[in-house]
Amino acid sequence: MKRTLIALTLAALAAPSVAATDADVDRSFHPYKDGFPSLPGLTPGVVVGKGNVEQFKDAFDPGLYAMIKDGWVEIKVGPTTNFPQPKTYVEATRKNLNKTKLGAKNGEIEGFVAGRPFPEEPDVKDARAGEKLAWNFKYGVNYGDSGSIYPFYWRYRNAATGQIERTIKFQFHFLNFMHRTEQAPVPEITPNPAKIFRGTYAKVHEPQDLRNTQLLIHRFEDDTKLDDAYLYLGFQRRVRRLATGQTTDAFLGSDMMIEDFEGYNGRISDMNWAYKGVRNILVPYFNHNEQPLTDEYKEADGYKFVDFHGKGNCMPNVTYQLRKSYVLEATPVNPNHPVSKKVMYLDAQTMNPGRTVIYDRKGQMWKSFTIGKSHPDHHLPQNKGSDVAIDALFAQVDMQSMHCTTGQFKVLIDPKVNPPSLFQVQHLRGGD
User: 175-203 pLDDT, tens per residue?
Assistant: First the structure.
């Protein structure tokens, strides 16, 4: 009886007190319809450094504020711009409005079809508002229904000296098997007997000692089911299944965990979620072709990558926009997790975390994580008109050990380079 009462109470909390409306959908996807956020003196072209960061403290999350105050980096402000989401995704949100409900337990969801599950403005008085935002992120448009990164350059850097310790050349692929809205087949790739929601595949091309190392992750539709993750080590020529705990180990010796991919690459049920309010903060959203790009890498099509600057060359050399962000705190369910919490700043329009601050087990600020997004119409010609915000960079800075891992992306939104066969365990054994 007691368990039944608890379940009923949780279900009642999950139920929205007021049904979402078309106006809620419009506000969710067009947060700047009535104007862009502003802060006195913070205008396009302003450079914020340790000398004036106090003046603009309200525009920063604690991690980036601390780095600027300590002289790690100066950032240049750009104009806030619109990052529309794919029309089919917005239409799916409208069509399926109010069909989605939270289940009795964290990680359970009912009635979801496609689109943004909870487009209504979050309410700090709603005990499960954070969980709803987490689902909006999970079912959001990150690479759309499928996307690829090649090449993808990871660099390990000594933040104190700027020394580049290692460069790894990757390819990455992402594919949604279910809840598809943009690319055929819609709404689902079949057959899919295991009910995989999303697949992630990665392969190392350089250096030689890691060549042909491959990673495959299957995330299931049932969020309470553990992911299947596989690693193929080229020098061993065998596939091994990753234990659950290995997703929070340093990935290939970097500052990144597998769980960090895309901002958060874990299950909803792995975290307790708390919504901490809304803020207008500076995040690296920009037009790729208007940035000071590097000539270091030579691509046949002339594509140039974003560059890094600041202490140790650990921070992206791009412009930052003042954007509406939801503050989402994730606390691990597992007490043995290496972090005490992650605070993600979800962009209100795209539901992607441009900034994340990670705290160690003692509750001290540990890592500063940045993901930079380019408008697709100012990127590769093939991405124009996709309405998919394009990942152009990441920077994971370990502020305690003075070390960082940076990434430079060339993203392509094209289903032809993401066949379902790429996401099968058998593919890992294919070798070079």
Answer: 999 999 999 999 999 999 999 999 999 99
N-to-C CA span, the chain: 58
Contact 27, 33 (CB under 8 A): yes
Element (H, E) at 417: none
Query: Per-residue pLDDT tens for 294-343?
Result: 999 999 999 999 999 999 999 999 999 999 999 999 999 999 999 999 99
Whose tokens are 């309010």? That residue is 277
The residue count for the chain: 432
The CA distances from residue 36 to 40, 43, 58, 75, 213, in Å, are 13, 12, 16, 20, 45
Produce one character per residue of 318-338: b if its CB has 16 or more CB atoms within 10 Å, e if not. bbbbbbbbbbbbbbbeeeebb
Structure token pair of residue 286? 């920009």
**Which amino acid, one-letter code, is at 21?**
T
Structural contact between residues 203 and 212, judged by C-beta atoms closer than 8 angstroms: yes
3-state secondary structure of 174: strand
- Please tell me the distance from the alpha carbon of residue 428 to that of residue 202, in angstroms, as a whole number: 10
CA distances (Å), origin 139, targets 76, 114, 180, 270, 322: 32, 8, 10, 16, 24
Helix locations, 96-198, DSSP H: 129-138
The residue with tokens 């705290």 is 359
Q: In angstroms, rounded to a whole number, what is the distance separating the alpha carbons of residues 332 and 341?
A: 7
Nearest by Cα to 136 from 222, 225, 25, 229: 25
CA distances (Å), 222 to each of 61, 110, 112, 272, in order? 33, 11, 12, 17
pTM over 0.90: yes
Report the Cα 421 to chain-centroid distance in Å. 24
Tokens of 77: 């402000």
| Per-residue tokens: 161 | 């000296």
What does the DSSP 8-state code read for residue 227? P
Could you give all domains of the chain from N- to C-terminal order, each with its CATH number?
1-432 (2.50.20.10)
Name, in order, each residue with C-beta under 8 angstroms of 339's C-beta and a sequence gap of 6 or more. Answer: 332, 358, 359, 360, 361, 366
